[in-house]
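Dear Dr. L.,

I hope this message finds you well. Following up on our conversation about the binding site, I have prepared a predicted three-dimensional model of the protein together with zinc ion. For your records, I am including the exact sequence and ligand specification that went into the calculation, followed by the structure tokens. Please feel free to forward this to your student if that is useful.
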Amino acid sequence: MASDCIFCKIAAGEIPAKKAYEDEHLFAFHDIDPKAPTHVLVIPRQHIASLAHASDKDAATLSQLLNAVPAIAAQLGLTNGFRTVINTGADGGQTVSHLHLHILGGRAMHWPPG
Ligand code: AMP
Ligand code: ZN
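The resulting structure of the complex is given below.
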């Protein structure tokens, strides 16, 4: 755990969040500033600063992150589809330096994103 990381603290239960899912490896919670009717963030419990910081040793974690999405989306009722997003670095629009996957749904998404 990175002691100064807000998402590490959320996964550890030290900062409150509206939980959507959790298991041994992952924690998912509703975004505090939702960009769609449903907006959930899925994070590995392990601190990885961004997708650009991930490497071969994180292969299992990355697999768990993506693999969990269908069940979380189904649990959220997103039967008509959803958008998954991983913002990376400054140009990617990443504002929290702990790898997170956005699940957005409940409305039709636009393409291309801004
Ligand atoms: P990104 O811009 O991809 O780094 O996404 C970070 C997301 O985290 C944003 O959508 C924020 O609204 C969200 N966020 C920041 N702090 C919190 C928090 N304490 N609880 C829930 N979501 C948060
Ligand atoms: Zn962290």
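In brief: The beta strands are 19-22, 26-30, 38-44, 83-85, 101-105.

With kind regards,
A. P.
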